[in-house]
Amino acid sequence: MENFLFYIELGLNHVLDFAAYDHILFLIALSLPFTFRSWKKVLVLATVFTIAHCLSLGLSVYEIMVIDVGLIEFLIPVTIVFTAVFNLLYIKSVPKERSILLHVLGTAFFGLIHGFGFSNYFKMLMSGEDEKLSPLLGFAAGIELSQVFIVLVVLASAFVLQSVFKIKQLHFITFASILVIIITIPMLIATFPR
Predict the structure, then answer these.
(1) Poorest-confidence range of 71-75, 97-101, 161-165, 175-179?
(2) Which value, in Å, is the radius of gyration of the alpha carbons in the chain?
(3) Which pLDDT value is given to residue 194?
(4) Separation of alpha carbons 101 and 193, rounded Å
(5) Rounded to whole angstroms, how far apart are CA atoms 144 and 177?
(6) Which of 76, 108, 53, 85 is nearest to 193 (CA)?
(7) CB of 191 closer than 8 Å to CB of 77
(8) Any idea what the Cα angle at residue 17 is, between residues 101 and 80, rounded to 5°?
(9) Who's near 133: CB < 8 A, 6+ residues apart?
(10) Domain positions in the chain
């Protein structure tokens, strides 16, 4: 049980590590178009991301699939920018025609990429472990808990800005998505394959 708790804590720290803020940026971008009224959709997206993230970790840990780290390090900020750009397109669509399906598919694909980005470090941690499923499940639980926390912070911030300060949702999503893109550009430049 102590080992399981260690991996839960590792999952929490993986997402909430401000030094490696790419995960937080992705979750912010993912949550921006939603409100507390659509919290179920955001929870579904966070869970899909966790499952895909842990699937790619599992594929890597069991050495079923190994992907070049340099490519993955570049693709992670690409996923953040794509998510933010998608927000800008999403808010221009007709509300009745908005579907979460594209969000789910994109989130699953991006979750796979983010999982491969963490796989080398995770494999190194698990090198002494005989049983790998329990650590993966503990890690997944830690990721999910931290993602729910970040999503709640984004939704609460959106609520305060839109309800108290009367900032229109369209303006909030537009400004925040552009800010996410600007913050991500240096990551794109630094990780661009050479």
Answers:
(1) 97-101
(2) 17
(3) 82
(4) 31
(5) 23
(6) 76
(7) yes
(8) 35
(9) none
(10) 2-191
Q: What is the spatial distance between Cα 45 and Cα 27, in angstroms, rounded to a whole number?
A: 10
DSSP 37: G
In this prediction, what percent of the chain has a pLDDT beyond 90? 60
Q: What is the pLDDT of residues 150-167, one digit of tens each?
A: 999 999 999 999 999 999
Reported confidence tier of residue 100, pLDDT bands at 50, 70, 90? confident
Per-residue exposure over 85-118, b if at least 16 CB sit within 10 Å of its own CB, e if not: ebbeebbeeeeeeeebeebeebbbebbbbbbbbb
Q: How far is CA 122 from the centre of its chain?
A: 17
What span, in angstroms and rounded, lies between the C-alpha atoms of 140 and 162?
32
